[in-house]
Design brief:
By secondary structure, this protein is mostly beta strands. It has a domain of 91 residues: Nucleic acid-binding proteins (OB fold (Dihydrolipoamide Acetyltransferase, E2P), Beta Barrel), CATH 2.40.50. The chain contains one helix and six strands; from the N terminus they run ββββαββ. Strand 2 and strand 3 form a beta hairpin. 14% of the residues are buried.
């Protein structure tokens, strides 16, 4: 039986990414992403905001991109998988961890990343403009009985 381990987050980065390189030369970037949900408290009627923090790890070229263009406050879309782990803290107590190993990332917001703009960073160059592709002339229609069918059928 097949299984699925997939996470999708849309949130804001809580701190600048920490980028490091493994002895093999592989880039690794870690960042915290905050996601928030709002609900109305039944007893008081006030809106309550619940913020969750997620540890996200990026590898290879994705880690380098995150290190260069993402900063604290940047809105970000992340796809990845959950990874559970354990470690023993300095106090000798075993602790559990949950990390998201990112496989996809999309920067959200404007050219400045949509953050607060307080962190001076080099801005990404705008994407290259794409010239519109000329449409080819419609093929001449034969007498196949399909003259009224649209040529732009997507399948």
């Amino acid at each position: 039986m097949a299984s699925v381990n997939k996470v999708i987050l849309v949130g804001n980065c809580g701190r600048d990414p920490e980028v490091r390189y493994l002895p093999s030369g592989q880039a690794v970037a870690n960042v915290s992403v905050a996601t928030s949900s709002r609900r109305k408290d039944k007893t008081t009627g006030e809106t309550v905001e619940d913020t969750q923090w997620h540890r996200v790890t990026f590898y290879d070229r994705l880690a380098e991109i995150v290190g260069e263009y993402i900063h604290k406050g940047s809105p970000i879309y992340v796809e990845g998988r959950l990874k559970y782990g354990k470690y023993t803290g300095q106090d000798g107590i075993e602790k559990n961890t949950v990390d998201i190993i990112a496989t996809e990332m999309q920067m959200l917001g404007g050219r400045e990343g949509g953050g607060d703009g307080a962190s001076p960073r080099r801005q990404a160059a705008p994407p290259p403009a794409r010239a519109p592709q000329p449409r080819s002339a419609p093929a001449s229609r034969g007498s196949s009985g399909f003259d009224d069918m649209d040529d732009d059928i997507p399948f």
